[in-house]
Amino acid sequence: MLGVLMLVSGAVDAAPHAAKGKAHAGKVRKVANRAVRPVPVTEPLRLSFGQAGGLHATRDPLDLKSSVALVVDQDTSEVLFSKNSQAVLPIASLTKLMTAIVVVESRAPMDEMLQVTEEDIDTEKGSRSRLVVGTELSRGELLHLALMSSENRAAHALGRHYPGGLPAFVAAMNRKASTLGMSSTRYVEPTGLSSDNQSSASDLARLVKTAYNFPLLRQLSTSPELEVALGHRTLQFHNTNKLVTNPTWEIGLQKTGYIVEAGRCLVMQARLSGRHLIMVFLDSAGKYSRLGDAERVRRWLESSDAVRPVQHVPSPPVRSPASVS
Predict the structure, then answer these.
(1) What DSSP character marks residue 86?
(2) Which of 117, 190, 193, 239 registers the highest number of CB atoms within 10 A of its CB?
C-alpha cells in the first residue's frame, strides 16, 4: 500500500508542473537527459603473461621492477644475477635481434631498395607506423629502423623480401635459435607483435652474445637517431632506449620491446665495472622501470655488495596462458 501511495503522490505532484508550459517541460527534459546519461564503461585491466603467472610477486635483493632478470659476464659466462631466468614469456620487439641476424647472414645486398606494402601493415595489434605504404628504402635503412626505433613495418618488410618469403624467413629464425641452443625459444613472425614469439632470459642472453659478434648490428642498435628521406619529406627517427645517449653508459648493443602480453623488455651488452656484461630484463610493468632496473643493477655492481654473484632462486617456467590482450 505504501508503494501505491508513493506512486499516486508522484503523479499528483507532477500534474501542476505539466501545466506550466513548454519551456519548463523542455528544461525538465534536459535535466532528465543529464540524469540518465550512461556512465562510461572502462576496459578491464590487461595483464602481461608474467603478471598472470604470478611472477611479479617474486622478490629479489635489488628490488627490480622486472619480473625476469639476468646479468651474465659476456667473457666468462658467469651468472652475476638471476631472477626467474628460465621463465618463458613473450618477448615483443626483442624478436628483431634475431630478425637482424637472419638478414645479415643471408648476405643480401644492403643497398637493395625494398618497398613497404599493405602486407606489412600490422593486423595483430593495429600499431601505427610512419612508413606509409609505397615507401621505398634500402635494406640497410630498414634494418637500421628496425633495430634503432623498433619499426615494425621495416622488420616485416625485411622478412617478406627474404628468399622464399615470410615462411622461409621465420623458419630461418627458428633454425638459428636451435643452432644457438635457444631451446625455450619460438618465433612465428619477425616483428614481435605476436605474443607467440617467446623466449627465456637465458636464451636471450645467448642471442645478445651472438648479435654482438656483428659490428653492423652493434652500430645500428646503438645509433641515437636517423634521418630518412621519403619523397619530399625528411623524417627523423630516434632510438627507443634513452640510455644510448647517456654518457655514463657504455652500451655495445641493445634492443627494447613492448606489447601488453610481454610488458616492458630490454636487453643490452654494456661495459660496467671493467666487465663486459649482458643484461636481460623482461616483463617490467612501468614505462621507464626497465631503464631503472638497469641503473639499479649498475649501482649494485659498482658497490661492495657485488663481490660475490647473487643468484635468485628461479620459479618454474611460465608458459603462455590464454591471451589477455
Answers:
(1) T
(2) 190
The residue type found at 201 is A
| 26 within domain boundaries | no
93 is catalytic: yes
Residue 182 resides in a domain? yes
**Cell 617474486 sits at which residue?**
58
Is position 96 annotated as part of the catalytic site?
yes
Q: Is residue 206 part of a domain?
A: yes
> What is residue 166's DSSP assignment?
H
User: Which CATH number do you get for residue 60?
Assistant: 3.40.710.10
The helix-helix angle for 201-211 and 95-105 (nearest 10°) equals 40
Q: Which of 258, 251, 249 is nearest to 208 (CA)?
A: 251
Which strand (E) or helix (H) includes residue 266?
strand 263-272
Residue 125 counted as an annotated binding residue: no
CA distance 235 to 227: 6
| pLDDT tens, position by position, 61-86 | 999 999 999 999 999 999 999 999 99
Cell 623480401, residue located: 161
Look up cell 630490454; give the residue.
Answer: 266
* Full DSSP string of 96-117: HHHHHHHHHHTT--TT-EEE--
Residue 169 counted as domain residue: yes
CA 28 and chain centroid, separation = 51
Q: The pTM is what?
A: 0.82
Domain carrying residue 230: 49-311
User: Domain count of the chain?
Assistant: 1
Given 65, 83, 96, 209, the catalytic residue = 96
Task: For strands 79-83 and 310-311, give the pairing.
Answer: parallel
Nearest one of 67, 92, 90, 91 to 314, comparing CA atoms: 67
From 67, 82, 150, 199, the catalytic residue: 150
Q: Mark whether 273 is an active-site residue.
A: no
Per-residue pLDDT of 190-240, as tens digits, reads 999 999 999 999 999 999 999 999 999 999 999 999 999 888 889 999 999
